[in-house]
Amino acid sequence: MIKVRCPICDHWMESASTAEWPEYPFCSARCRTIDLGRWLGEQYRVVPEGEGQPPREHADDSDVP
Ligand SMILES: [Zn+2]
Fold this sequence. Notes:
This protein is of the alpha+beta class. The chain has a single domain (about 1-45), classed as Erythroid Transcription Factor GATA-1, subunit A (Erythroid Transcription Factor GATA-1, Chain A, 2-Layer Sandwich), CATH 3.30.50. Helix content is about 30%, strand content about 10%. Strands 1-2 form a two-stranded antiparallel ribbon. The model has no long low-confidence stretch (mean pLDDT about 80). Zinc ion binds near residues 27 and 31. The site of zinc ion has 8 residues, from loops.
């Protein structure tokens, strides 16, 4: 038996194993969706403006034959 607290709604949950717990570590699909939304919100804030430039990763290695 494991006991985990949902990071979204702070509910304590008990289950025999995480294998039978599709929404682990969240208590429900709803809380998992909320967490996903928070992640996406963070990413939108982190991405700097003017990110539309093409990648130059390979341009620096173009001298190698
Ligand atoms: Zn929850």
